[in-house]
Design goal:
Structural class: alpha/beta
Shape: elongated
């Protein structure tokens, strides 16, 4: 925020500089009056970027008419005027008062004449040339009257012509008052300029051409889009009266100035959608856009709406777990998200493979692109091929008119998730391999090569190495897909996650206050959950539907025969029975683990299997007992 001062004379300059030091405020000071003052002010704006300029009298009036920044005018007060006339009276009672024509009504000359018993002749000027003409005329006529004036240039001319001249000076108090007004105005001006720049940026980046005028009808806004559409530079039009311009397109846009909305106007081969809104006075706002752009945006919007189903809604934060095993898997998957390499997710049915695939996509740099998923086991071979690669018009009987893009094309710049990849027919595997290698696809019945940029995430619950040995899966495709590997452990190997998931499913089914007892906990822990998280969710839904039931009833609600439950009568190394001393549940659990530690001679894998715990959980319990 910078303030400039146009000083009319050296004494004024020194006064301003002293005030600047006393008030500890930076000021940029240049000397000059009228035209020379205007030139100095333009330099200040261009070189120093001043926000406000302080000037005196007629010079301030000139700057206000020529410049677009605020001007603080220092007016001659009555005290300064009377003091100057008193000094002039000492030389002559005949005084010529030379003042700017705009100040005519500011002074009571007849009162001054009576006060000082003098005769005052008023001469008015518009510019410096008129001042010079008046003074040269006085010299030519031999008039030796004393001169009183408001412009400092009079002093210099009077000295050349040997005329007596008194220029009205400004006091320190007047200048301090002007400075306070200037800094307050500068603050308001900078705030308004910031708001205007913000508004101008918004307007400049609008999709429509925007033209606006002020209350006088002069163009105040002409954005970049308007410049491009009309092929005219904005700086050539800003400040000019819109309705008087002869540009044919501008004349048509302005029309008769009345309000129109969504009107179609034609300019030769071009057609525009025009809105014209009259405001206060001669102010008007016109927005317009090429009709083909409107149609294109509508088509893009329709495409976006159509493709909205191709998005991934899950992230890593949606994966519920408590076990160290899952924490490690998620950490690895997060690392894989940062790359563009293919990922193979393996795990039993119901472990959440697609949940991981969506999470990897959403944490990747492709997260703004589509996420397209297809189950390779859900479609017959011919339909699967057309879905993956697309087809051209007339490619086969029943083909959609105009053809159809395949999922590879739809997943461009995004991710294609191939679920149950192990079920992909062997002949389609060869075509898939080629697409992955060449990064291009050809539709069924087509001749055009379509380049694609797609990341592949695939998933399977099959042992692909066994499939390779049985010639049911191509080894080269396996290595192309298996660059990065995510192995999701089954629920039976991470039973610490059971209760997090149970609570989630209970809440999901509206059972916020469901209270489960020790029998319920034992039931949950004793089962292997061969259907994993999906089976657990189904069972919880059944239980909440039926209500409080016995353990036997709960077993009936399972997806698998009761025989899959862990039975206490299963044989293990060591004694058939364990004698326990009654105590807290934790104390008795410690006795069991201590007994198993001795019976299995530290074989944690077998211990974990028999106890239905993960190795990590067992390790923590053993470490806690300090029986390593």
């Amino acid at each position: 925020m910078k303030v400039g001062v146009i000083s009319p004379y050296p004494e004024f300059t020194n006064l301003v500089k002293d005030i600047s030091v006393d008030m500890d405020v930076p000021l940029i000071v240049k000397e000059g009056a009228l035209q020379r003052g205007l030139a100095a002010a333009n330099l200040m704006i261009e070189k120093e970027n001043v926000s406000v300029i302080i000037a005196r009298g007629a010079t301030a009036d000139l700057l206000e008419s020529k410049l677009r920044i605020p001007i603080i005018k220092i007016t001659v007060n009555n005290f300064d005027l009377l003091k100057t006339f008193q000094a002039a009276k000492q030389i002559s009672s005949q005084i010529v008062f030379i003042d700017h024509y705009e100040n005519y009504s500011l002074y009571d000359i007849s009162f001054i004449e009576k006060l000082y018993s003098v005769k005052i002749v008023l001469k008015q000027y518009q510019d410096e040339q008129e001042i010079s003409d008046i003074m040269h005329q006085m010299k030519h006529q031999g008039q030796h009257k004393v001169i009183v004036g408001t412009a400092h240039c009079m002093e210099r001319t009077a000295k050349k012509l040997e005329l007596s001249c008194f220029v009205i000076k400004s006091t320190k108090e007047v200048m301090i008052d002007a400075l306070h007004r200037a800094f307050e105005t500068a603050r308001l001006y900078e705030r308004e300029k910031l708001r205007q720049n913000h508004l101008q940026t918004i307007i400049s980046h609008a999709f429509d051409g925007v033209i606006a005028t002020d209350v006088q009808g002069n163009i105040s806004v002409f954005n970049n889009v308007a410049s491009e559409l009309l092929d005219v530079k904005a700086n050539e039009l800003i400040g000019r009266e819109l309705r008087k311009l002869h540009h044919p397109k501008l004349k048509k846009l302005y029309g008769d100035g009345s309000e129109v909305r969504k009107k179609i106007s034609s300019f030769g081969n071009q057609r525009y959608v025009v809105n014209r809104i009259p405001l206060e006075g001669e102010s008007i706002v016109i927005t317009f856009q090429e009709t083909n752009k409107v149609i294109e945006q509508d088509s893009q919007l329709r495409r976006n709406l159509h493709n909205r189903r191709f998005y991934a809604k899950y992230t890593f934060s949606d994966i519920l777990y408590q076990s160290a095993e899952m924490e490690q898997v998620i950490e690895i998957a997060r690392f894989y998200s940062k790359t563009d390499k293919s990922v193979l997710i393996t795990g039993e049915s119901g472990t959440g493979k697609e949940l991981f695939a969506q999470s990897i996509h959403n944490e990747s740099k492709r997260n703004n692109g589509p996420f397209v998923a297809i189950n390779c086991a859900a479609l017959p071979k011919d339909l699967l091929e057309s879905e993956l690669f697309g087809y051209e018009d007339g490619a086969f009987t029943g083909a959609k008119k105009g053809g159809k893009p395949g999922l590879f094309e739809m997943a461009h710049e995004g991710t294609l998730f191939l679920d149950e990849i192990g079920e992909l027919p062997i002949d389609l595997q060869a075509r898939l391999l080629r697409v992955l290698q060449e990064r291009e696809v050809m539709r069924i019945g087509g001749e055009k090569i379509i380049p694609i940029n797609v990341r592949i995430i695939s998933a399977t619950n099959k042992d692909l190495k066994s499939s390779i040995k049985e010639n049911a899966f191509r080894e080269d495709l396996y290595f192309r897909l298996n660059i990065l590997r995510v192995i999701i452990p089954p629920l039976r190997d991470r039973k610490e996650d059971l209760f997090v998931l149970v609570n989630h499913f209970l809440h999901k089914n509206g059972e916020v206050d469901y209270i489960y007892d020790d029998d319920f906990l034992d039931f949950i822990k004793s089962y292997d959950w061969p259907g994993n998280v999906r089976e657990l969710e189904n069972v919880i839904e059944r239980i909440t539907t039926v209500g409080k039931v016995s353990n036997d009833m709960k077993k009936i609600l399972l997806d698998h025969p009761i025989g899959t439950l862990k039975q206490t009568e299963k044989k293990y190394h060591g004694n058939e029975s364990i004698e326990l001393t009654l105590g807290t549940l934790e104390e008795m659990e410690n006795q069991i683990i201590y007994h198993f530690q001795k019976s299995y001679q530290g074989n944690k894998q077998e211990m974990a299997e028999k106890l239905g715990l993960s190795r990590t959980t067992l390790w923590k319990k053993i470490k806690k007992l300090d029986i390593l």
